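In response to a reviewer's request, we include the raw inputs and outputs for one of the modeled complexes. The two entities were modeled together in a single run.
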Amino acid sequence: MTGAPLGDLALVVSAALFAIGVAGVLLRRNVIIVFMCVELMLNAVNLSFVAFSRTHGIDGQIVVLFVISVAAAEATVGLALILAIFRHYESVDLDLFRRLRW
Amino acid sequence: MSEYQPILPGLILGLPLLGAVLNGFGAFAWRENKTVPTIVGPLTVLGAFALALWNLYAMRAATPHDPSLVSYWTWFSSGDLHVGVTLLFDQLSLLMTLVVTGVGGLIHLYSVGYMREDRGYSRYFSFLNLFIFFMLVLVLAANYPLMFVGWEGVGLCSYLLIGFWYENREYSDAGKKAFIVNRIGDFGFLIAMFMLYTAFGTLDMLAIFERAPGTLVAGGVLVTAITLFLFLGCVGKSAQIPLHVWLPDAMAGPTPVSALIHAATMVTAGVYLIARSGVLFALAPFSQAVVASVGAGTALFAASIALQQNDIKKVLAYSTISQLGYMFLAVGVGAYTAGIFHLMTHAFFKALLFLGAGAVIYALHHAWDATGEHGDPNDMRNYGGLNRFMPITWRTMWVATLAIAGVFPFAGFFSKDEIIWEAGVRGYAVLWGVGMAVALLTAGYMTRLMVMTFHGANRSFGEVGGGQAGAKRSHLREVPRVMWAPLVALAVLSVIGGWVQIPEALPLLPRVNLLHAWLEPVFQPALALAGAGAAHGVVAAHGATAAPGEGLSLTSPLGGGEALWAVLATVLAVAVVLLVFRSLSRRRYRRAAQAPEPRGLAAVLYHKWYVDELYDRIIVRPLLALWRGCWRIVDDRLIDGSVNGLAGLSRIAGWTGSQLQSGRLSTYILVFMIGALLILGSLAF
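The model returned the following structure tokens for the whole complex.
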């Protein structure tokens, strides 16, 4: 890992993580996995915040702390929803949940 | 001599209106209660009549030369046009008020008996009271717009009462026909009002009549157009050719309605309008000629149809049209007093004839109800020999028949004779001849009506006599007193009604000049305009003060003086009555159901010269075809097509849009991603 500075490396990892997350959300049908991929995307963003805070000051790291706490709350709500849906459908297959339409 | 002030003018109008409101309320609130309409209906009209009589005495005492105005409030103001609710009291409007409320009151009384068993008793009296109110507005209005209110109001009441039995499709259609045909006339009235406003800047009658000789060119295009459009209104309202078609159909209404609205009062409104606007007509000789010719033509035309009708009310309807033709003939030649005179006497004897016909229909209806017999109670072929069962109706109707036939000394003799004579004296030889001929036709068809109804064998219960038919006939009886009392009162008026104006020319008779003297202040300006010579001559011809004027002969077109022709006319009328009576009494009529179709000229007359069929061909059917085309193409295709097309378009758009909403989260996210990338991309570059 010589040549490229640490910040650039962190951004590349962050972009990769984000792309994996997007791909997971788009392609997978298991709600749990989709949910995890969403978390992955959040953490990819966190990583780039931290990386930028090296050059741009402490603000990025503060935002990351906020994101982590909001994500914790979001995970609670999200998992509760998934539980409720699973009780109703007895499944976590995303393609089954198509009732919210015209 | 004290100044004349109208006495309680608001109450004359207010009483019938109050009656209409009370009865109209009753029609909803106490449908079954017949006491209130029985009291309120006739009493309000008779109360108005009493007030009119009081006014008559006051006016006679004061003999005012100028009309009195009663202003209530300003109806509308627009620019320099101010139209007020203003009543005009002069000798003419008071005379009309007396006729309307007097004859109207008697007919209200008669209706108490005639309509007793009708479900719409209260509604009927409400409409009838309302009619009297609007008729009074019409005759008492001091400006044309207010008169138009009355004009339309009586038209509305006429419509409501023709279609009174609205469950019957034919009857309600007849009401619509009357209303629609009258619209054509009302269009003329409106145009005339617009033209009057542009010419004078006001619509007050007195102001117009005062300024007319100075403002309008005598015989000019403007005044001729105004008067012709006014006359178009009269043609509609008074059922003259070519708008006469509604009146015979209007007989669908209850018979007292026919007597009041379609014989005695409303249909004479046209005559009143022309007499009232005499100053304008005096300035337009061409219009006068049109009025007189249409009147004479209608008189002859309608009388010929009346000869071959079998429905008793149709005969009387055509007779009314014919007599209205006489009145237009009179006001057309400028003999306004003669026209109003005939209007008055005609109100008496024609109301009597209609009420008598109503009595016959009533009696037959009840006799048939009691015996289970069926048939058309209006068809004279189902009558015959009713004189034994209904002596009062029989006698009073003969009085009216002799009056309308112009037999001395009944009322019609004096008024009809004056009209014919005035036409002759003014040099209208053809109109004079037509008037004479129609007088004889009138005697003919009226005698036919009387013979078919009251004489010969009774046909109401089958052709042959016999025990059973005789027993059934015992159900035929005279109408109740509340119905025959008005008949008697009108019969008395039909006898003495003409005695207000007895020409000097008749020998052995006292000369009476009440009517001419009474109306002289009203018609003097018009007569003065019509030419000084003629104006004085009219009075002179009836033996007044002035010497005979220039250009006015005192002999008929065929020579001979007034007395000769009056005697000749009455002798001829009596001769026709006797002749028709003798020849028809021997004829055996068949009942309506078995009667053969008429042939030849009789068929043409029976079918009323095919006027209805002609209108159907040239107006109704082309219009129907046009509107049907509009419906099928314009409405169905164009309008509905564009509206439905738009609806279809938005439905397709909506359906397309709704397909985007699949409910699949991953699709949404994909689209969202693509969108986010596009936005980011566009921000980056």
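As requested, we also summarize the result in words. The radius of gyration of chain A is 17 Å. Chain A touches chain B at residues 22, 25-27, 29, 34, 94-95, 97-102 (CB under 8 Å).
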